[in-house]
UniProtKB/TrEMBL annotation:
Keywords: DNA-binding, Repressor, Transcription, Transcription regulation. PANTHER family: HTH-TYPE TRANSCRIPTIONAL REGULATOR RUTR (PTHR30055), TRANSCRIPTIONAL REGULATORY PROTEIN (PTHR30055:SF151). InterPro entries: DNA-bd_HTH_TetR-type_CS, Homeodomain-like_sf, HTH-type_TetR-like_transc_reg, HTH_TetR, Repressor_TetR_C, Tet_transcr_reg_TetR, Tet_transcr_reg_TetR-rel_C_sf. The keyword Transcription applies. It comes from the Bacteria. This is TetR family transcriptional regulator. The lineage of its organism: Bacteria, Bacillati, Actinomycetota, Actinomycetes, Micromonosporales.
Amino acid sequence: MTSIWLRDEPDRPRRAPQLTRARIVTEAVALLDTDGIEALTMRRLAQRLDVTSTALYWHVRTKDDVLDLAVDEIFGAVPLPAAGRDWTTDVRTLIHGWRAAMLAHPWTTALIGRPMLGPNVLTRTEFLQAALTRSGLTGERLAVTTHLLANFVIGSAVTEAAWPHDDDTPGAPTARQRITADPAAYPTLTDSGHLDSARWPTDTLFEKGLDTILTHVLGVPSEASPPPPTATPILDV
C-alpha cells in the first residue's frame, strides 16, 4: 500500500461531518501514548471517536495511514525557532527537540523506519539542512552530515526508549551488574563504566555525543574540548 504521503487524496463528501482528520490524529496519539501501537486498531479508534468504522475509513484507508499521520503530528511539536546568526544553536535546538519529542512518545521509535515524508518532518529537515548550509556544507558533505545527525538522534531515542534506566525498578537486576559480575571477562567495560547510568547519565552522553559530532565533523569549537596541540614544524635537513 502506497504511503499516505505519496497518494493523491481526492476531495469527497464526508459521511460524518463532525469527524476530521485532525480529530482522528489527536485521538490516535492519545491512544498510542496510553496503550501503545499494538492497541491501535481501526475499530477501537472508531469507538473512541464515537463513529462507525465506515466513517473512519472515509478519512483514512488503513492503520498505517493513521500511524504515519500520528508520527508527523509528534514531530510538529518539535520547536522550530527563527533561524539565527549562530547556525550551531539552530542545529542543537532542533536535535534536542527531536529527541525530547520521541522520548515523550516512546512508540514513535518503533515507526521511524516508515516513510518520513509528512509536512512537519520535512519542514524540520529543511530547517536542519538550511542551518548546515550556513556552515558552508554542500553536496555530499551536507547529505552525509544530515544523515549522521538524524541517525544519532534516532538511535539515541530508540535506545533510551527501549532500555529503562537502572533506577526505574528499584532492586531489579541491572545491565551494569551483568558486566561487574565478571570483571575479568570485561575489564575495559568494567573500568570505563559502560552502562553505568549513575556515572554516565543519558542526557550527558547525548549532549557530549552531539558536541563530538559538531566539533570533529564540522570543526565547531567546543568549550569541553582541549585546544589542539601546537603542530611541530618540519625542519629541512
